[in-house]
């Protein structure tokens, strides 16, 4: 059995940014409550992942030699 593989056409950062925008738009339509709080938590997680991805790819970080 072979794994199905596909190549991502966008970077992780781009995909996470799009997800954050989509979740924020959905949050605007919801009244305060549990569902909205869960979406807010997901937005914060995605924003943190974007920051981590940016810091990992930073040219200032180098492996010790």
Outline:
This protein is 63% helix and 0% strand.
Task: Outline the fold blueprint.
Blueprint: H1 12-29, H2 34-56
Helix pairs in contact: 1-2
Task: Tell me what the structure shows.
The protein has a domain at 12-55. It contains two helices and no strands. The protein has helices spanning 12-29, 34-56.
Annotation keywords:
2 helices, extended, mainly alpha, 65 residues
| Share in β-strands | under 5%
Which class best fits the helix and strand makeup? Answer: mainly alpha
Average pLDDT, all residues = 90
| Rg of Cα set | 16 Å
Query: What's the story with the biggest beta sheet?
Result: none
- Ends distance: 41 Å
| Broad shape | extended
Helix content: 55-70%
Uncertain regions spanning at least 5 consecutive residues: none
Report the total helices.
Answer: 2
Please tally the β strands and state the result.
0
Order of helices and strands: HH
């Amino acid at each position: 059995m072979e794994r199905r593989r596909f190549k991502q056409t966008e970077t992780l950062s781009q995909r996470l940014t799009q997800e954050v925008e989509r979740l924020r738009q959905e949050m605007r339509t919801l009244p305060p409550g549990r569902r909205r709080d869960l979406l807010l938590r997901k937005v914060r997680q995605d924003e943190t992942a974007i920051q981590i991805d940016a810091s990992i790819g930073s040219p200032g970080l180098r492996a010790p030699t």
